[in-house]
Amino acid sequence: MTHKNYFSDRLKTKTDQELQEIIDSNAYVADAKLAAKWILAERGKPTSYDPPQQAIKNDKPWISIKPNHSARKKYYEWRMLSFGLGCLISAFYIGFDSLIITRNSLTALTGTTRYAKVQVESVTTRGRLGHKVKSRKATLYFALNEHPKTFRLIENIGQAHKHPAYESISQSLQSAKSVTIWIRKSQHHAPTPKVFQIDANGQTLLDLNTVKMKFAWVFVLLLCLGFVMIGIALNSKYPRLIRKLMGRDSSDDDHNHALA
After folding, report:
1. Nearest 5°: CA angle at 29, between 28 and 35?
2. Which of 27, 30, 53, 115 has a CA that sits 20 to 30 A from residue 185's CA?
3. How does pLDDT run across 110-130, given as a tens digit for each residue?
4. How many Å is the Cα radius of gyration of the chain?
5. C-alpha span between 219 and 175 (Å, rounded)
6. Secondary structure (H, E, C), the chain
7. How much is the pLDDT for 193?
8. Which residues contact 244 (CB under 8 A, 6 or more apart)?
9. What is the CA angle 252-71-128, rounded to 5?
10. Per its UniProt entry, which superkingdom is the organism in (predicted)?
11. Cα 164 to Cα 156: distance, rounded to the nearest angstrom
12. β-sheet with 147-158: strand ranges across
């Protein structure tokens, strides 16, 4: 037999009528019909059945052919790479700059509390793969009578409904006779400067080191997340180069194939 596939040996005992019924039926896969056509042709009874192009290339129909996902793969590689670079930029622009700040870089604004309140609201953000993530954020708003500025502290509280620390600071500010807010000297004229320390009646409500530790955690998180996402994207796009940089060259792959 000139042509042969997986079904050829199974169908060679069939009669001409049975083979023709296989070709005409929709219950059989294309390769089965193709084998029936070849057998009939060998018997001198050619048919007009024209199989799909894919059936000719695939001689193992029980193995599913995976669609080409190269475009989707490139899309996710680009997204992961962009997200990783964004994390690194944010780490150095937001976290590291605030991490190395000292008391000499700050200036004090002293006055009396005009208002202080805590607001909790639901927020929806996008995850690293584009899916929606719902959570809540707490914002402490406060201002001083002597300075035309609005101060605020923001923190994501997950699924909680209150922020006890912010509530405590708000109550202390409302009852305090004197409040001192520490901000950057470079933000002295900013309408909403970043707050690094809060003192009320000589008592520290929010310490500079606590704020710096918070930024340190953000810095490390963004830094690690950035390197991980960039590493995954580059490993997906340039697997051989990454293996070579990690000490695994093509000889390792050849050795593995030889063992297989």
Report:
1. 90
2. 115
3. 999 999 999 999 988 766 555
4. 34
5. 35
6. CCCCCCCHHHHCCCCHHHHHHHHHCCCCCHHHHHHHHHHHHHCCCCCCCCCCHHHHHCCCCCCCCCCCCHHHHHHHHHHHHHHHHHHHHHHHHHHHHHHCCCHHHEEEEEECEEEEEEEEEEEEEECCCCCEEEEEEEEEEEEECCEEEEEEEEEEEECCCCCHHHHHHHHHHHHCCCEEEEEEHHHCCCCCCCEEEEEECCEEEECHHHHHHHHHHHHHHHHHHHHHHHHHHHHHHCHHHHHHHCCCCHHHHHHHHHHC
7. 94
8. 250
9. 85
10. Bacteria
11. 13
12. 113-126, 132-144, 147-158
User: What distance in Å separates the CA atoms of residue 150 and residue 106, rounded to the nearest whole number?
Assistant: 17
pLDDT above 70: percentage of residues in the chain: 82
Domain ranges of the chain: 8-57, 103-213
Question: Which distant-in-sequence residues (6+ apart) come within 8 Å of 46 by Cβ?
Answer: 37, 40
Residues 6+ apart with CB under 8 A from 148: 191
Distance CA 235, CA 241 (A): 8
Output the pLDDT for position 128. 53
The first and second tokens of residue 184, run together, are 């950057």
- What's the confidence (pLDDT) of residue 108? 95
Residue predicted with more confidence, 25 or 56: 25
Taking the C-alpha atoms of residue 3 and residue 37, their distance in angstroms, rounded to an integer, is: 10
